[in-house]
Amino acid sequence: MKRTDNPRRSPLVPDAVEAEIERHDWEAIECGCGHSAGHLVPTLWDAAEGHPAAFHALAGHVFTWSRLQAPAPAACAVLMAIWAAGPPRQATREALLRTLLALLGTEDDGSSHEAGLYGQCAAFVRRSLPELRREAAGGPDSVTAAYAEGVVEILTLCA
Questions:
Q1: pTM beyond 0.85, yes or no
Q2: What's the CA gap between 114 and 43, in Å, rounded?
Q3: Which residues of 4-43 are buried (b: 16+ CB within 10 A; e: fewer)?
Q4: Which residue in 6, 77, 93, 145 has the fewest CB atoms around it within 10 Å?
Q5: DSSP string of 127-151?
Q6: Which helix (H) or strand (E) holds 107?
């Protein structure tokens, strides 16, 4: 069942991000920790509000260092909605880009006939490639630019 009864609202979370969080049936998705992914919703709200630690908290649930887990495409859609909303804080952008880099740095689980979790995530991220390229060109000494450049390079290799 979708979480349409979520009482959480925040003036920091754009409507498009809220809609993306609510669009997914988190309870029906098995989390990387073995429980339902419903427990990720508060973490995604925290990420949407700009809390850098929330992005780090997705590790072990959405991805491990080598594999994506079942909630990865839905979580990636939320992350890209946050990116599209233009997180204003530098620390938030860095945490979001570092998380995308971790997601895209996992093994591709697709086949010649289907995208798999990796292909679905890459497709969500690829939609924002022009913005990511702009971020990567932002400054040679910028951590944010370095993360964005890493994401762009991985997507370029996957194309």
A1: yes
A2: 29
A3: eeeeeeeeebbeebbebbbebebeebebbeeeebbebbeb
A4: 6
A5: TTHHHHHHHHTT-TT-HHHHHHHHH
A6: none
Spatial separation of the C-alpha atoms in residues 73 and 23, rounded to whole Å: 12
Tokens of 20: 């993306």
Tokens in use for 144? Answer: 């944010």
Scan for tokens 């780090």, then name that residue: 56
Q: Any idea which residue has 């979480």 for tokens?
A: 3
Other CB atoms within 10 Å distance of the CB of residue 107 = 12
Residue 57 tokens, joined? 């908290």
Q: Which two tokens stand for residue 86?
A: 């233009």
| CA–CA dist 26, 62 (Å, integer) | 12
Q: What is the pLDDT of residues 91-119, one digit of tens each?
A: 999 999 999 999 999 998 887 778 899 99
Report the Cα 18 to chain-centroid distance in Å: 14
Cβ contacts of 114 within 8 Å, gap of 6 or more: none
Neighbours of 54 (CB within 10 A): 21
